[in-house]
Design brief:
The protein is α+β, with helices and mostly antiparallel strands. 25% of the residues lie in helices and 37% in strands. Strands 1, 2, 3, 20, 21, 22, 23, 24 and 25 form a 9-stranded antiparallel β-sheet that branches. Helix 3 (124-147) runs antiparallel to helix 4. It comes from Candidatus Paraprevotella stercoravium.
């Protein structure tokens, strides 16, 4: 074999060896890539750590779900739970102590003082007392005169009637004297919903000074646009959330009931009112604006999860499915309707899978850290 032939054989051998090594390396790389792909989206969260952050899960099953429409509305004090405190004399009003809206008050507690000093026509309370004193003095004289038959029994009865009327007039004013004038007290226990006067205002007999509410019952007034009018025939209940609260309240769980569903739009508005009544079991202030989900009679079997189970990324929704005690999988889902508490899942999870319902944000943060199951790191 000449020198040229030996060189050709040597080159062919090297090329063959290189090809073998290259194929071997590519195969290993493909295996590593495939194994990494198998664990893509799997997040590790130690059970102890999960308990520490309050992680909770729920097994997803099909259950009854009511379609709902979301509307705006307002929380109101129920009728009969409010009383107005009124002035029973003329004069200048002042607050008794540190008075403000939202104050808890007791029945009989002094709220205002009204002074008639320097006021035209004087103090009506003093005038009523003077009238009573004169009437009692006249009656005392009449008792002597009727015994001596100087006046008739009929005249005596008229004098006695004037005394009784003067006494009732003073008693009916319902005020107690204080250092700064006549005291006006709360007529029921509850909370001050609204103060209608300012210190120094001149008030007259019967003028409203404040409104006290007991907040035992609430009304939830939903304002429904005309495009949802056909839905009103099947409304049975509602869920609601006020601006100041992060918790959605279910009327069914707080003694709620439907009071009325409007059949027409009140003049000057484009909304039909739907009114519910419920117990005030929490710190819900009448007058608060609310988001309201009206629930219909129709129910269907559906896969649902709490709204707290969802996370969102650029308009795409995800849930985290628990695979075992410490492994979780990020799963994209397609959502349907919701009722303010739960949301329907149309695609992405199957019945009997466990979904994170509280603490989903912590699992999301763990997924962003790039954690993969222990034992699946690759060192080459």
């Amino acid at each position: 074999m000449n020198h040229l032939s030996k060189n050709i054989l040597r080159l062919a051998f090297l090329l063959a060896a290189g090809t073998t090594l290259s194929c071997s390396h590519n195969h290993a790389a493909e295996e590593e890539k495939h194994e990494e792909h198998d664990h893509e989206g799997v997040i590790v969260l130690d059970p102890h750590q999960a308990e520490k952050i309050g992680l909770k899960t729920e097994t997803v099953v099909k259950s009854s779900f009511s379609p709902a429409i979301k509307v705006g509305g307002k929380v109101l004090a129920a009728n009969g739970n409010e009383k107005t405190v009124a002035a029973t004399t003329n004069g200048l009003v002042t607050y008794s102590g540190n008075l403000y809206e939202g104050n808890a008050v007791r029945a009989g507690q002094t709220l205002f003082s009204i002074s008639s000093k320097g006021v035209e026509n004087g103090d009506p309370i003093e005038k009523a007392r003077l009238d009573l004193a004169n009437a009692e003095s006249e009656l005392k004289r009449a008792e002597e005169l009727v015994q001596k038959q100087i006046i008739s029994q009929k005249e005596f009865e008229q004098i006695k009637l004037r005394r009784d009327l003067a006494r009732e007039s003073l008693s009916g004013m319902g005020l107690k004297k204080s250092g700064s004038g006549m005291s006006v007290a709360a007529n029921q226990s509850g909370f001050i919903k609204q103060i209608l006067v300012r210190p120094g205002d001149y008030v007259t007999v019967g003028q409203p000074l404040a409104i006290i509410t007991q907040n035992q019952k609430l009304q939830i007034r939903a304002e429904v646009s005309e495009r949802h009018y056909a839905f009103l025939n099947q409304v049975r209940s509602a869920n609601f959330r006020t601006e100041a609260s992060q918790q959605t309240m279910c009327l069914d769980s707080i003694g709620g009931r439907l009071l009325s569903s409007g059949k027409s739009m009140p003049e000057g508005t484009f909304y039909v009112p739907v009114i519910f009544e419920c117990n005030n079991v929490g710190n819900i202030l009448p007058g608060s604006f609310a988001e309201i989900w009206l629930l219909g009679n129709e129910q269907r079997e559906a896969l649902t999860v709490p709204l707290t189970a969802l996370t969102e990324e650029q308009g795409v929704f995800f849930v985290y499915v628990q695979k075992d005690k410490e492994h979780y999988e990020k799963r994209e889902v397609k959502t349907g309707g919701q009722d303010g508490v739960r949301i329907e899942i149309l695609k992405g999870i199957q019945p009997n899978e466990k979904v994170v319902t509280q603490g989903a944000i912590h699992v999301k943060l763990a997924s962003q850290s790039g954690t993969i199951p222990e034992g699946h790191n690759h060192n080459h």
